[in-house]
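Justification of resources, computational component.

The compute hours requested in this renewal are based largely on the per-chain cost of generating structure records like the one below. Each record pairs the submitted sequence with a full structure-token output. That output is archived, and it is also reused by downstream analysis tasks.
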Amino acid sequence: MDLNADLGEGFGRWTLTEDEALLTCVTSANVACGFHAGDASVMRRVCDTAAERGVRIGAQVSYRDLAGFGRRAMDVPAGELAAEVAYQVGALRVFAEAAGSTVSYVKPHGALYNRVVRDEEQAAAVVAGVRLAGGSPAVLGLPGSRLLAHAEAAGLTAVEEAFADRAYTPHGTLVPRGEAGAVVHDADEVVRRSVGMAVQGAVTGVDGSRIALAARSLCVHGDTPGAAALARRVRTALEGAGVRIRAFS
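The structure output for this chain reads:
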């Protein structure tokens, strides 16, 4: 199982994510590319540290929504969205390659992540942007999403992702953040759910139903309070359950 976290979610003097600490235990780093968080200095610092520690670098692309942290619904024309995705991937690639690494994958953030689960046009636009940026990075997304379907159709590697600290609807989608219980705050419960998803391939939905969830990557949100300590607990529990932690192939 790959263990990923959102990193570089700072801007100027403002810092949100525990980048240094998280990079000691995750295998993949979803680096903010400036549209919902992050700036050139932050991106460079995270890429340097990730490369030094052998952590895979991924571009976490977003709607252009710095004030709303990329979590507000937006209607962006497909061509414009493709160009903005390519812009973000290209910006991060400069710093990844300068650090001796590369952008290995792309993962949408926030409102864009949720939108491309079902929206054909927006999902196709994200994949078009990935292709426009060049190379063949993998694409991370929700299992069964239109994003992953379009990625596969474009010849890109589609990687199914699960969330350690997010609640699921009976349909296998994430409970919207505006609803009660969308984020799982109890650390013990996060650890139990993580092991269940990795070992049993299932998670309990908000209605108590069991949901099949085949995933190759598990996300611990970097902006969750105590995220680094939680990620270490999740990793220790997974390894204790016989799960090998490594970057997805």
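The radius of gyration is 16 Å. The longest strand covers residues 2-7.
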